[in-house]
Structures are given as C-alpha cells and as structure tokens.
Amino acid sequence: MPEPDQDCPVCGARPGDDVCAGCGWTLCTPWRVGRGNRQEYDRDLAGAILAEELRAAARVADTWEPCAPWLSERPSYAQWVGALAERSEGTRPSAPVLAAALRDLPEDGELIVVEVGRDGLTATSVTYDSVNGEAIADLPWTRLLPTLPDDPAERLFRLAGGLRTAGRPALEDALREGLRAWSATWPTGTERIAVCRAPGWTLPELAARQLAKMVVAEHGDLAATLAGIAAGRPTRTGCGLLVAEVDPHGGAVRPGLLPLFEPGDLPGAKRTVVVHRPPGGEPVSLAVVTREREQRVLGVWRATLETETAVTVELTGPDRVELSGPGALTPTTAELAELIGDLPGRLDLGAGQRELVCLLELNGLAATARRRREFVSDLLELLDMEAPNRVDVTLVGYGDHSSEGRYTERLLHRSQGPAVRGDLARLPEPARSFVTGAAPLEDALDEVRVSGLVRQRVLLVVAGRPPHAIRAGRGPRPARPCPQKIDWTEALGATGANRRLAVLDGPPGDHATTWELIGANHLFLLAEATPRDVGTAAGLLPETPIRFPIPLAEPL
C-alpha cells in the first residue's frame, strides 16, 4: 500500500488525510494482523484508476474513444455506461447570485465576473453604468499552464480530471501562481464571482475557487444572463422626455423634462406624455434623459410630429427605454449638448393671437385660378407649421354675381377655424364665363366687416380683378357698378384690418390706385411671391425660419 505522503495513485492529487479528497481513494489504513492481499489491492486500484479516467472522459465527450490514448485500459461497455450514468455536472445557476450582487452594488462600485471554461478564462467588469459588462482580460489555458499538452483532445482530458500521470501537484502550484499574477492588477477589494463554464471539470473548478469566494457553475453566456438580470431590475434614476419650454411672457426658451419614470420603477412600466410640434414642422429628436446632476441620454429617436402628439415610453430595464406612438421612429444617437445646443434663446411670440382674413378670387383663367388656390394652400400650411395655434384664419372665396346670363345663387364661400384648409380644397371650380373688368371683391370685403379697428387683424386679398366701381363709369368700356350697391372703399375701411396686403395675377395697370389702397402695406405679384414673403410682410412669420431640435412642452 502507498505511504500516506505519496501522491494519490488514482487521481494524482497531493496527499492529505487518510482518504484522498479528490477521488475518495483510501491512502492509509491502520496496521492489521496478518498478511495483506496484494492481488486484490492491485485489482481494486486498477478499477479505481479506470473509473476516475472514465469520469474525466465522460465530461469531455459522449464516447470514450477521443480519450482512448490516455486511458489505462480499454473499458467494457458496462463500465462506460456506468461512467455516463454517474456523470454529474453539479450545475449551480449564476443568475440568482449575480442578481443579488448587482442589486447591492453601489453606484461607484465594481463587480468582476470571471468565467472559467474549456478554452481559458475571461474576466468581465460590471458597474452601475455598464450592467452588460465589459471584458477586461482573457487568459487561455495554454498561457496559464504551458506544461499542458499541445494536443487539444489530451488537454481537455487533463483539464477534466485525467491528471494521474500529468504531475497534478505541479500543475496546481503553477495554476495558483498564474492566477495570482493574472488578477494582481484588478482593483483591490473588488467583489468577485467566478462562473465555471465546465461544471465538474477538475482544473476549471479549482481555478474558479481560487479566484473568488463565490463560485457558481453552469454552461451559458454571461451577456445573456446579465441582460436577463438587467431586464428585471428596478431603475435607480428618474428620467423624462426632453422638451423645449417657452416662457409665455418673455418668450425665453429653455430645455425641460416631461416626467416619465421614478427611481424604483420596474421594467415593463409605460408612460404616455403629450408633446407639441415646434415651429418649422421639421423632424425633431425625441430624447429620454435622466434626472440627475450629470444627466445622461438614454435614447434618441427622430420623428415628424403632428400638431399634438402622444408619445409612449416603455421602461425595458435600468436605463433602457423604448418609444412608440408618433408614427415612424428612427433610432439615432446624440449627446445632450447637441440636442439643446441649437435651441433658440428666445422666441418672439408677438402680441398675442393674430387673425388672417384671406379673400380669394375663384374665377378667372383656370390655370391662374388654380395657382391662386395653391398659393393660399401653401401659405396656410406654412402658418400651421411655423406658427401653430397662433393665427386664426378666415377664408372667403368669391365668384361672380352672374355667369352665362344667370344669377349666381351663392356668391361667397366663407370658412374659418381648423376647417379652413379642408374647405379650401372643396371650393367651386372656376366658372367658364366671367366679367373680365371687375369682380365682386366688395361683397367679400363687406362679408368680413367689423366694428372698429382690430389690432391684430391682417387682410390678404389674392385676386386678379379689381372690385366693382362705386358708380357707373363713362367711356367706351364703362366700369360696372356693384349690383348690391356696396361701396368697396367703405367696406375696406370696415374690415378693421391694421395691415393690408394683396397678391395680384399681374401688374395693376390702370387700377394701380385701387390696388395700392387695398394692399396698402404691400403688393405682390403671384408669379414672384412666396408664402414666406407674404407671411413675413403680414407680420405673421419671422423673416428667418426658427428651428427647434426638440418638441415643445406646451403649444405656442
């Protein structure tokens, strides 16, 4: 029988107690009277050696043939089936242990997770801000233990426990020193958790125990485990949707947050907030930002908003959110400084709500009449984009008193409020016959008369023909008076407009005096005018478009 100070003849482990801690082989027994049975001992020893080797081979593969060169003898079918039946990986799930450690991790703390597998070791640093982890070191077995066999199959057999003839004590000493040197640069006092990715394998299990007090063992992927844990963790930091806040009194613009989530909210929580389209109507950035001293951007999406848009945000994990709601969303990235850097310092809101009264001539050459309507449509769209909810629009479309010798039943078509743009598209088509010299603009002016001057009222006439004369004229082509006997000059004064503009089909010619009175502040030609030119001259729009990179918290 071996002396108690010799390595274990079965697994090669360094001697310790009377029974080998590695394989359970009895190393030393009390003296007995009589002679020992050497043949029985040798037979038992050979059986124990083969059983130990088969346990290692069963960890490596489902058949013993890959490890055949290093087995002490060829196993029987029954012996191999027995080894497979006894194969126990002894898995110990990592998720509960990692979840507990991450739950208690301070905001400035760090957790190092070491994975020990067939090919080597990987150390991953996990922090409060990086729950998914960042690999900080890799160490293959061939570098950690250079004396391991070069042959991959034999190396796996030795790692799994086939160490009887591999100089196990020397390997264990080298393993201890190699791990000490490898981990020497890690922060002192940092909590460690070792995950053995080869459960039951002798050297990987030993390495895991030497690297950390807390050891778990299972196959799997650390990134997936951490992602699953993160998905169930409550958030520690509140967050909100980044918006622009405009002071209704002075027009000062500053960034703000619409509250979304509070510390302690769990993944799966959803919040819906309402934002408003800023001037310009261009795509904006919908950004979720933390509420803390050093604010962080958790996510950014580009979207084109309606006038009022509901945005739904879901908390998918700590510091992780997803957006839905405002139509198509395009994920992007941006720093907080980029998102708020282009905000205007001040927005000139003007003196309260404005009113635009637009009188649109419906008849004339068909192509010209269409251009007038398109111009008005484009102007209304621009106002809706750049001055949302700031301009009340009244539209009056007017035709002719009669057409083809018959009296027109409905001369005026009035619309106002939100329905204006839709009503504009439904106005009657141009009449096939009309009087070229004048149009009943005076009737349209009379339709919008008010008592006194309205400070914020703008009159815009988009037309080709002047109004009917006050009285019948003289000459070869006398001007026709208004059948309703409306004095257009009196009706013009009764509109109460403090600013008057006109967009004409062409130069006013003989009617210059009339049009200069109607468009007292500015006359435009239809072929040259742009909606912005007219909106600016009317005092409804700024000369330079104001751009907001983020949505508004409240409507203007």
From TrEMBL:
Superkingdom of source: Bacteria
Name of the featured protein: Uncharacterized protein
